[in-house]
Amino acid sequence: HRELARRAVRESLVLLKNESNILPLKKNIDILLIGPGINNIGYQCGGWTIEWQGDKKNDLVPGVSVQEAFEAVAAENGGRVITDYTKADEADVVVLVIGESPYAEGVGDNGSLTLYSHTAMAGNREAVRIAKETSLPIVTIMIAGRPMIITEEILDWDGFIMAWLPGSEGGAGIADCIFGDYDFTGKLPVTWPENEKQFGYTTNNKNYNEEKVLFPYGYGLSY
């Protein structure tokens, strides 16, 4: 069952940006892994997991976090995972894991959906700032159940992966694709808005123009 869950993660990931073919990452490099989502299964599972508002304490659900999966790959291939941002000068690339905290029903109502709004993971702002200040290539993984407004931030990112809410095996499935053992095959099931004014702007709109949005419905890259 865990292997099936891992496969589901691989097949649902959507690669949205891959400048200069930054991905797949080599397995033997030194990675600065930062962000509030690097080691939190509760964030990966989202709301309605065991409890109504999900596992915000990260102590209810067993699984494989992004950090655990990356460290396993590094250990087998002579690479290194660095989580102390003060050692950024020792890294080859930054992998930034950000997104939204678990929520259910009205608690998740949000009229802005920025990376720094009330439903966002605590620590997003600092992690985004630190990643930018390193001057290293940045690959961002978003853990969230819906698109967030990233129009300005994405300009600083070389790679961007939408992981949705990948569940308990999220870390393993993400590692499978980001290190190239499997290709990305997922496509966006929704339009990704450029700003708040585009909330609700879908392909059902008779004036739908995919050039106006950040990413259109059905978009997704592969290697």
Outline the structure in words:
The two termini are 28 Å apart. The mean pLDDT is 95. α1 packs across α5 and α3 packs across α5. The chain has five helices and six strands. The protein has one domain: 3-Layer(aba) Sandwich (Rossmann fold). It is 22% helix and 14% strand. The protein has a six-stranded mixed sheet, with helices on both faces.
The main sheet orders its strands as 1-6-5-4-2-3
CATH architecture label: 3-Layer(aba) Sandwich
Helix content: 10-25%
Rg measurement, Å: 17 Å
Summing up helix and strand content along with how strands pair, one would put the structural category as alpha/beta
Map the helices and strands.
Blueprint: H1 2-12, E1 14-18, E2 30-34, H2 41-45, H3 66-77, E3 80-82, E4 93-99, H4 124-134, E5 138-143, E6 159-164, H5 170-178
Parallel strand pairs: 2-3, 2-4, 4-5, 5-6
Antiparallel strand pairs: 1-6
Helix pairs in contact: 1-5, 3-5
Task: Quickly list its features.
single chain, Rossmann fold, 6-stranded mixed sheet, alpha/beta, 6 strands, 22% helix, 5 helices, 223 residues
Q: TL;DR?
A:
It is built from five helices and six strands; from the N terminus they run αββααββαββα. With 223 residues, the chain is of the alpha/beta class. The protein has a single domain (2-198), classed as Rossmann fold (3-Layer(aba) Sandwich), CATH 3.40.50.1700.
